[in-house]
Amino acid sequence: MTQTAVVTGGSGGIGAQVTRELRARRWEVVSLSRREGCDVSDETQVVEAFSRLKSLDALIHCAAVLVKQPLLAMSSADWDIQLESGLRGAFLCSREAFKLMHGRGGSIVMVSSLSGVAGAEKFPGMAGYVAAKSGLAGLTEVLAVEGRQDRIRVNAISPGAVDTPMLRIAGVAGPSLKPEDVARVIVWLASEESAPLTGANLRMDP
Prior knowledge:
Blueprint: E1 4-8, H1 13-24, E2 28-32, H2 43-51, E3 58-61, H3 76-101, E4 106-111, H4 127-147, E5 152-159, H5 165-170, H6 179-190, E6 201-204
Parallel strand pairs: 1-2, 1-3, 3-4, 4-5, 5-6
Helix pairs in contact: 1-6, 2-3, 3-4
């Protein structure tokens, strides 16, 4: 039976690589991104996108926005867009995924970051991004609890520097990971191979 996954932020970076990896394994993948006409922070667009699906086996939330600005220069719009895409989008998509997975199970994978891990090094100008990724960590834990009775597993992955366009915006030290390195772990988390793991936040910090 063909398995179905939704990948947010699937048009670039880690999301694009996850989409390729899943399709290589014969998953049916629905990619949601602004470039592909779906803003995951827009409730109406998210509900409409998920309403087209008859079933869902996995949701991988990769969508994120990084606006690098020191606090005194950051506008409320800069702050909002980072929280909307990275955290509000995760909430909206997870809620719709829960509806489709209710009674049959499934897997949700939140793509967080070392930026969202307590105690990991933080960088100036990334307050909005860090807040969004930190929020994902907490959301992962509570959704894992809520999903347990329906066999919905919710896990997160927190990679360090990955060779993506977003890393170049961040302007931090050179990459230690490639998108395919992270994508392979995400695909494992999305599949039954990782059952019964839930509520975990896997740190990738080579």
